[in-house]
Amino acid sequence: MLKDITLGQYFPGNSAIHRLDPRTKLIMLIVYIVALFVAVSWVSYAVMLVFLIGCIAISKIPPKSIVRGMKPMVMILAFTAILNLLMTQGETVLVRFWIITITLEGVIRAVQMMVRILMLITGTFLLTYTTSPIALTDGLESLLSPLKKLRLPVHELAMMMCIALRFIPTLIEETDKIMSAQKARGADFETGSLMQRVKALVPILIPLFISAFRRADELATAMECRCYHGGEGRTKMKLLRYSRLDFEAFGVGVALLAGVITLASFGL
Amino acid sequence: MAPILQIQNLSHLYSAGTPFEHKALDEVSFSVERGEFIGIIGHTGSGKSTLMQHMNGLLKPTSGSVLLDGVDIWTDKKTTRQARFRVGLVFQYPEYQLFEETVYKDIAFGPKNMGLKADEVDRRVREAASFVGLTEAQLNVSPFDLSGGQKRRVAIAGVIAMEPEVLILDEPTAGLDPAGREGILENIQSYRKAKNATIMMVSHSMSDVARLTERLLVMNGSRLAMDGTPDEVFRHAQELVEMGLDIPEVTRVFLRLKEMGLPVEPVYSVEQAVTVLKKLKEGSAHA
Fold first, then answer.
1. Complex confidence, ipTM
2. B99, B105, B144, best to mutate vs chain A, most A CBs in 10 Å
3. Do B99 and A186 touch (CB under 8 A)?
4. Which end of chain A is more exposed for a tag (fewer CB within 10 A), N or C?
5. Which long-range contacts (CB under 8 A, 24 or more apart) does A262-266 make?
């Protein structure tokens, strides 16, 4: 069912990772991704993996749910692996038939790419699993605020993102409801040709769009009633503040990046 | 005659096997006779909506079974689909499911899905429209140009047009003004009379269920807590209040009168109240 979608689901908790400032987590994610792309050898991958597993252990997120969130990515993973497997030139040829050549280098490359993408996704999941959407947009707004000088509407963008995230579960619930109601009138979404199935979506999409517009309208009115007029002069109830924990995290991040760069410079 | 619907030890688990597992129905059993008008009451989260969605096979029981005319509705795909048409389900705020260009087409959606012939669809649409008091002219306008109450009627007509033997409605009068509420309740009554249909209605208005229904099911904490005539159920006013449910206003007045020492038994409708009070007055006049 639709309810089982776990894309970017937040797991409430009180671990050290949960308590980190969202800005710290965002910066750490960038550091982590950079380190991941600097890493070239199995040794540095092992270092990254230890770091990642450590973070998951601290966050107390059940590994099962991380694996579950990974499922939609299988296609991309498979595609990358096959592409690398076939496209990499190398000296040690393992298999050759027709126009396909598979080399040892290709196999290594494919496995490395898969590991890299898996670790990339897992790292991102860790951020969204441990940070509530509101904290995340808050952090993003704060990190991007220097761009306000370039007249970029940072606050408005953050607000839009926040509202969009907030309404995903609402719309999923709504879709579920409309689907049930149309099924109760004998709508059939599971059988028939492709055309028929696409047509069967009309009784869901039209009510869904209407309700989304209605909600947007109501929300806009409600915001205006409370005198919302954009980011200018707006203050926050919960100010973001770096604590000791954040500086410790930065320390770990710098150490990780330095370590991986050092390893890379030795060709490891 | 055999009961039209039999619910046997019905249990339902949401998100089974995940940390969000939640038991929405717990060993619920009852049966429904043909032509009954049943009210279902219970506070939010007591399992009413989950129960309703089992009756026409929208949800599959985790354990237990739903028998329609003695046949399990999950026997095969065909019986499940038949159950959807024989047991009509009107959701809360059904006007949000309208999608067609005209009222006529929207009401015809259900009958068309049943695979009926064009003239039969036409007959049913017109009949359903007349049950809910829509005029001929209104059939050709866009449902989105109608008022809230009229949209609700169109949505209910869309289910009635399938001519279900059992009509289940989830708070059909929520959010309507008194005239609109009365209208919808009358529409339901007239459908029941014309087709000898069985009606099950979820409602939070205790005076409505007290007045209209012959039998009340009370849901509490995923279980069926009470099953009886409104008379029997409202006699347990104290328990109902403990379940977070309301009792009819007139019952509340009478409970208080009793507390104050008047020799009255709790009633649940205004008509009853009048008779009891008249008797009381005559009694005291004779004394």
1. 0.85
2. B99
3. no
4. N
5. A263/A39, A263/A41, A263/A43, A263/A44, A263/A47, A264/A38, A264/A39, A264/A40, A264/A41, A264/A44
